[in-house]
From TrEMBL:
It is a multi-pass membrane protein. Keywords: Cell membrane, Membrane, Transmembrane, Transmembrane helix, Transport. GO terms for biological process: transmembrane transport. It is found in: Membrane. Its main location: membrane. The chain crosses the membrane at residues 30-50, 62-82, 117-140, 152-175, 181-199, 211-229, 235-256, 268-295. This is AEC family transporter. The keyword Phosphoprotein does not apply. Pfam families: Mem_trans.
């Protein structure tokens, strides 16, 4: 099991480390790479997975429901403590809710549980992204228009993929193969971009970062663990939910905070220290997934 965990985590951190090393000496235009990834490669992966009728989406309805509960429920868990500690809700709460389901989650889940986990990984990633660009933006600015979310390429790709899957529309194999190949680019590119982005943030507010590194996985697990047994999830979906709930804050939290000018340096510390904390949290979570959830298979 230790070998499996290492085989899962080492490629994740190695690719992110390559991004950090390259970014340290070359300072690439990572914003353009991220734009290309989020507007082309990720939507193509989402479309390919959702449109593939070999992955019946009805089987993932409860997983999607559980992912919504984890994102929103973790916010409800952390909110009273943040109020008691007199932390800025707009700064502290979103990173506790919206985790790194894209840059780290999708690659990690596929490496850990194999290609069969890709549809489940994409489902929880879509849930996290849609909630981040709806509920998350509303938390930061209640006047944010939902029309902005509906125009996102990932939303359009999700709707197109769902339509193709539910309607039974036959898609040519060459089209699905091309979208799968182009979509596959996004997984290593997510990790590479994560490594480059982590160079831009610092430890200026390390106490808040340490608190967030502890609360982010705990708040997610408080919601996820009961749901794993209460909802009719199969073993693979339960394992995916467990890992999803334990993921660190998404780098996107920092970019959004920077855009809205809401203490981006504090959010940067939350993101950086939370992702460093995943070096401890993720091996423990994967060990639990292999031992308690997947062992009966």
């Amino acid at each position: 099991m230790i070998g499996h965990i290492l085989a899962t985590l080492l490629p994740v951190f190695l690719i992110a480390g390559c991004g950090a090393a390259y970014g340290r000496y070359r300072t690439p235009d990572i914003r353009s790479l991220n734009t290309l990834n989020m507007e082309l490669f990720v939507p193509l992966l989402v479309f390919a997975v959702l449109a593939d009728r070999q992955a019946p989406l009805a089987e993932y309805a409860w997983l999607a429901t559980a992912a919504v509960a984890v994102v929103l429920g973790s916010g409800l868990v952390v909110w009273p403590l943040a109020k008691w500690l007199k932390l800025d809700i707009k700064t502290f709460l979103p990173p506790m809710m919206f985790n790194n389901a894209g840059n780290m989650g999708v690659p990690l889940l596929v490496l850990a549980f194999g290609p069969d986990a890709l549809p489940a990984a994409v489902v929880v990633f879509i849930v996290e992204m849609l909630l981040h660009f709806s509920v998350g933006l509303y938390m930061l600015n209640p006047r944010t228009s939902l029309w902005r979310m509906l125009r996102m390429p990932i939303v359009l790709a999700s709707l197109a993929g769902l339509t193709a899957n539910i309607s039974g529309l036959p898609l040519p194999s060459w089209l699905l193969e091309a979208t799968h190949m182009l979509g596959g680019v996004c997984i290593p590119l997510m990790l590479f971009a994560l490594g480059v982005r982590l160079l831009e943030i610092d430890f200026s507010d390390w106490r808040t970062g340490m608190l967030g590194a502890v609360l982010c996985p705990i708040s997610g697990l408080v919601i996820a663990l009961p749901l794993m047994w209460l909802l009719p999830l199969n073993a693979l979906q339960a394992a995916v939910l467990l890992v999803f709930a334990s993921l660190p804050p998404a780098v996107l939290n920092y970019l959004v905070a920077e855009q809205y000018q809401l203490a981006p340096q504090k959010v940067a510390s939350l993101v950086l220290i939370g992702n460093l904390g995943s070096l401890i949290v993720m091996p423990l979570t994967l060990a639990a997934a292999f031992t308690w959830v997947l062992a009966p298979l």
